[in-house]
Amino acid sequence: MKKMIAVLSAAALCCGALTAPVFAEEKPAKEYMLGDIDEDGDVTVTDAQLVAQAYVNAVVGKPIELTDEQIARSHVLGLEKEGHVYLTDAQAILMYSVERLAGYTDEELKDFFADFAYGLRDVKYLG
User: Fold this and answer.
1) Would you say residue 6 lies in a domain?
2) What pTM was estimated for this model as a whole?
3) C-alpha dihedral over 83, 88, 92, 98, to 10 degrees?
């Protein structure tokens, strides 16, 4: 009887050693598209207004009131300097949101901003 209990105990220990540890799955951080400042999943006039307001606040010496992530997403033209917002980005977001109402899709967003930036290539100071 003692041998039987010893064998069953050993078998139970072996089975326990073979189980894989269980780890909690990490949820990926939610990603928002370029130009989506208010994080509603869409690039709209509201996003342009938020960037324009942040720009005006910066010019008059008030706090920008956008997170670092929102500021990074506002840099739709790729002409960014960390911590700064640009009026030209607000203009591009506004133009995109209006064009989107006319049929642009989310997939065309980066191409639209790239084309807009190309049109500004001779401008010395953007901001």
Assistant:
1) no
2) 0.62
3) 120
